[in-house]
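The instructor's notes for this session suggest beginning with a concrete chain rather than abstract definitions. Hand out the sequence below and ask the class to guess, before any prediction is shown, which regions might be ordered.
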Amino acid sequence: MNSTHIFMAITTLFLCAVGSPVAAKPPNIVLIMADDMGFECVGANGGETYQTPHLDKLAASGMHFKHCYSQPICTPSRVQIMTGIYNSQNYKEFGLLPPKSYTFGNLLQDGGYNTCIVGKWQLKGGLKGPNKFGFDEYCLWQLTRRPNRYPNPGFEINGEEKDFKNGEYGPDIVSDYACDYIKRKADAEKPFFVYYPMMLPHWPFEPTPDSEEWNPKARLKDKTEKGANKKSKKFYIDMVHYVDKIIGKIVAQLEASGVREETLILFTSDNGTYESIVSQFQGKDWRGGKSYMSDNGTRTTLIASWPGKIEAGTVNTGLHDFSDILPTLAAVGDTEIPKRLQLSGRSFYPQLLGQQGKPREWVYCWYFRNGKPVDGGKKHSAGEFARNHQFKLYRTGQFYDVTNDFYEQSPLSIDSLTPEQKSTRRELQAVIDKQTRPGFYREAQ
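After discussion, reveal the predicted structure:
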């Protein structure tokens, strides 16, 4: 045996004795998305009507984003955030996640994660749908039916329909399930991914268990959700406070399970507040803009917290939209994105770590509630836009300075544009031309 063989044999014996180097376990991920909770509802954003101490603390502990954009209502936002693809390419109809979709649940599950989804579904697919889209376990409302979501609710839990008629509160049930999942998976060999699309604070606006008016017998005999109260600002405020309470509850569970520092928490919301709710934001009124493409309908909260990885108190002023979430989760989890996917988004993972990354120069929105090239009527806007920090261009040609015209009441005249504004308009038009679904507008003919 020569010296080389002797060295290799000794090395082999050494590795057998001490063990081969083990790759670091990827971080756990908890993604929480509130339902109809606008940018103005969070204190860290500048909101003044609501008390959100847990969210404010989460923002202070990590990165707080100033310019993240969603879709104007729930299903379009859910499809985009889960697939990383603009609605212009894969949105078919309201209340549907297209059956052939590949979601961030599939991605992380294929990459070795334990996966769980709790909260609101509203995407069809039947009792096996959540499993098909990459979730090992689920506790969901509105999967196969639409029972109560708040007092005395009904859920689908891992293949079974279950009704609760003893004064239970729906958000408590699903958040308890999330906390139990975290507790069960904290010491597992594989990391976990929990996706929590909340039911709160979507209407009906009604008492929470922390409200003086809470009635544990409310809706006890209702088989389907009824009485959609959309005007009670008092109870909407209570419901936002309950969102914040649940955030604190989940953070506490991560700490109790000893995995807080190994977990990235992301918090966002699917769209703006319902239009009947007027809140105070930085000393001014902010009317809810759900279903509208203006900033009060599409600008949303985004907070990222990961102790030891994301520098505390960081403010991100770059442009981001919901298509960026999937590629970011892929990078965080070190999972490979299938080559067949043509993603619209780009990862902001480098920015979480303090690096420059590849900042966006624009974001794009395609919104047609029912997937057809017709407007939703006076109550709902529809169409396409591309925007940067200051200017927004619609496919119709309307061009706004949104920093000075928040509610988009005065479109800029083409004849009055400066050379720089004309250049920006051309750049945004090119984005719209590229992103529009080929042949879409001929579908109405």
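Then share the key points. DSSP finds twelve helices and 16 strands in the chain. The longest strand covers residues 314-321.
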